[in-house]
Amino acid sequence: xxxxxxxxxxxxxxxPPGAATVETRLLVPLLKASHPVPAAAVTGLTALLAVALGxxxxxxxxxxxxxxxxxxxxxxxxxxxxxxxxxAAGRRDKPLAAGTLRPGAVGTAAxxxxxxxxxxxxxxxxxxxSVHLGCVAAAWTYNLWLKRxxxxxxxxxxxxxxxxxxxxxxxxxxxxxxxxxTAAAALLATGAHFANVLPDIEDDLAGGVxxxxxxxxxxxxQACAAVTVFASCVVLAVGPTGSVPLTGAVLIGATLVLCxxxxxxxxxxxxxxxxxxxxxxxxxxDAVLLVLAGTHPVGQVRP
Length: 303
Description:
The chain is mainly α.
């Protein structure tokens, strides 16, 4: 946290003496450094899936709390690891790179969140907790190593592909989820990886980050994101019954339009965060579809 003296880092971070509260000087930048939009999207998706799978209120709250803690730890770890690259790229939107947070504060927050994630995960039961901790470990492995390799997609695919298993293993009898739910989650996460990279792909290449999307380039990565999220929607719509209900057909149609725009649309659409936001919206739509349809995959479909 910045010093409170008139001559300290307070001036360098843009806060005049006495004008900033603790919340604005530390808590707000710390929240921003946690990647709050993806963290909220994943946590919200977990809550909706918990309802759809028939997880009770108490078990569902424990699962959502574990996922929230894990997501916070991953977000803070990501910003701390990327500090030098973000500074070199002039990322003033990142609190660490802008100097409004100290690296130690973010590193400590990441470790505290990770420490909280362990008991929260295990409170869901040893099998479920072990799966979730494996998911979080995959995400940290991405931050610390695989992000810069051709296997950058793998932690996303594994972590989110196993998210349904974390929830179903917390159910009585500890069943595994049906194959289609695992496949849909894995495909959706893979698409999210390709989409999330798009706004920063030039900065990533300049900073030496050469994951699979950076190696493929903007247009190819955008196409991969569109195709994988479309495949996820198809699997989710067809998997439960083997046929496509009306709501599933609408979802597939909307996603197909997104795919066509992403693959064949003008190059200008490749910029910005539109593909990432669209994929997160489709993830929410998939989960809401499960809740509204009253689908309980584990009880109705054999894995």
